[in-house]
Amino acid sequence: MRHLGLPLGFATMNQSRIVAAASALFAGSLANDLAAQWRDIATTNSPQALYSPAMACSDAGTILLFGGSRGSSTGPNSTTTLYATGTWVRDGGDWLQLMPSTVPQRRLGAQCVYDPVRGRFVMYGGWMASGLLGTASAETFEFDGVDWQQVTPASGPGPRYQYGMSHDLARQRTVLFGGRPQVLGSQLFDDTWEYDGVNWQQVSTPNRPPRLERQAMAYLPAIGATVMFGGIALNAAGNQLALTDATWSYDGSDWTLITPPGPRPVARVGSRMVLDSARNVLVLHGGMATGGTVLADTWEFDGATWTLQPTQTTARVDAGLAFDPVRREVVRFGGRPSTSTVAAGTTAYGAHAQTVGIGCQGTNGAPSLDSSDAPRLGLTFDLQLQNLDPGAAFAVLVLGASATAPTPLGGFGMPGCIGYVSADLSLLVAANAGAATWTSAIPNQLALLGAGLFAQGFSFDAAANALGLVSTNGWSSLVGH
Question: Could you give the angle at the alpha carbon of 43 between the alpha carbons of 41 and 44, nearest 5°?
């Protein structure tokens, strides 16, 4: 830690000046950092490398992942061992493989959505390992968190995979569009189907998108409609396939071609799109552009315009993607970095905060530091200090633009205490009854996405050591939406 000692470079100022100083730190030191809002998540257990799985998240923050392929080819493979099996869930921490009594046959190219009213995940179709090439499924499966159940609607979309699917929250319908029935040939669908939890029904619309496969699709409450982007489109004559950059919306009665002003994502196939329900925007990620370039970009759509996010991550096509509403982050698994490789690994997009290390013992135990939420653009967040010396009227909060290796502070007269952050700004915060809270606003600047903010607290404690200070644990965060 820099300049730890007395004085600590304290900013003994009123609250407005403290916020202004913190904002300057954000806008200065942090804005120069590489915007990398996507971050890798280390897990002990994980599905193996795969692409094109079915993946969705419940309102309670449970992510479900099923199926996909471990093969490196761009289509299904006759070797059934290349098809992934197993039902995996993640509740913000490690992946857990479940052992339900009923398991759908292994498949790729199926889609999964969550129906919050019925508390069920819904999965349809997919390409199943069967015979020389495999076969398209016409099965509807539901998962209740414990077991899979195959339901038998009176009608349905028929065998298909690589379609688009979303759940219309307002009308309580699962919406499906397009896809293909087989590997060979250029047959694609341009039909719209809805599932109400009992039966599938085909919807006839005055307008419809072209025949499509591997498009991105999600429901956007801001406009009360399902939004669909990209994919491989088949022309009206049925003799030419091309990637598209069209944005469509479906309100339950008709499809509308949207022409947003300004920039928009390039034409692509195999991208994924999910609803960030906390901000009411859609997040589109990855895919493959014309010419075979696998993309790493991330876009957001608010119902009127597309906005490219200043983030960096590894390129992926046909990855699994889901939004965790509890932790307010988009989670990605697997996908293909190229047409010949398949990846594993879990990454997340969104603001993040966590504690680091431990505090040292003082009069009131080990003081601690944590936050009420991660730092998010345009919003305020709190840093909360606990277990301070009850007799202290102030605490010290150190903010840094970087973390440091754990540094023993015994040389400063604080034996057993550890420093965790660079001391770029030191603040005096009013304390009462052993607790203190510091509140600050994050500027609403896209340049701050992915920037790191780090903090550590210190409690005045004359009886604890020669310096009269004891330290909290460290706190690290990623600024995001």
Answer: 165
72 falls in which pLDDT band (50, 70, 90)? low
Alpha-carbon span 428 to 132, nearest angstrom: 71
pLDDT at 467: 94
pLDDT tens per residue across span 149-168: 999 999 999 999 999 999 99
| Residue 401: both structure tokens together | 């633009």
Kindly give, in sequence order, each residue whose CB lies less than 8 Å from that of residue 113, ignoring residues fewer than 6 positions away. 56, 121, 122, 165, 166, 167, 174
pLDDT confidence of residue 32? 41
By mean pLDDT, which of 178-187, 282-291, 317-326 is the weakest?
Answer: 178-187
Q: Where exactly are the structural domains of the chain?
A: 10-36+353-478, 38-349
**Interstrand relation of 403-408 and 346-349 (parallel, antiparallel or unpaired):** unpaired
Four-point Cα dihedral 80, 82, 88, 94, nearest 10: 160
Check: CB of residue 360 under 8 Å from CB of residue 419: no
Between the CA of residue 237 and those of 189, 191, 244, 246, what are the distances in Å?
A: 13, 16, 16, 19
What residues are paired with 83 via a beta bridge?
Answer: 69
**Identity of the amino acid at 258:** I
Residue 311 confidence (pLDDT): 85
Among 16-20, 256-260, 322-326, 342-346, the least confident range:
16-20
Rounded to an integer, what distance in angstroms lies between the CA atom of residue 337 and that of residue 143? 30
Counting Cα atoms < 13 Å in the Cβ hemisphere of 458 gives 29
CATH of domain 10-36+353-478: 2.60.40
DSSP 241-260: EEE---EEEE-SS-EEEE--
Q: What is the pLDDT of residues 87-136, one digit of tens each?
A: 999 999 999 999 999 999 999 999 999 999 999 999 999 999 876 678 99
325: cis peptide before it, omega within 30°?
A: no
* pTM score: 0.88
DSSP notation for 42-63 = --SS---S-BS-EEEE-TTS-E
- Residue 481 is given by DSSP the state -
pLDDT of the residue at 14: 39
CA atoms within 13 A on the CB side of 131: 6
What gap in Å lies between CA 356 and CA 74, rounded to an integer?
42
**CA 351 to CA 219: how far, in whole Å?**
22
Closest residue by Cα to residue 211 from 177, 183, 182? 177
pLDDT tier at 80 (50, 70, 90 boundaries)? low
Q: How many CB atoms lie within 10 A of CB 188?
A: 23
Contact between residue 18 and residue 439 where contact means Cβ atoms under 8 Å apart: no
> Is domain 38-349 in CATH 3.30.1330.60, yes or no?
no
Using DSSP bridges, classify how beta strands 10-11 and 425-432 pair: parallel, antiparallel or unpaired: parallel
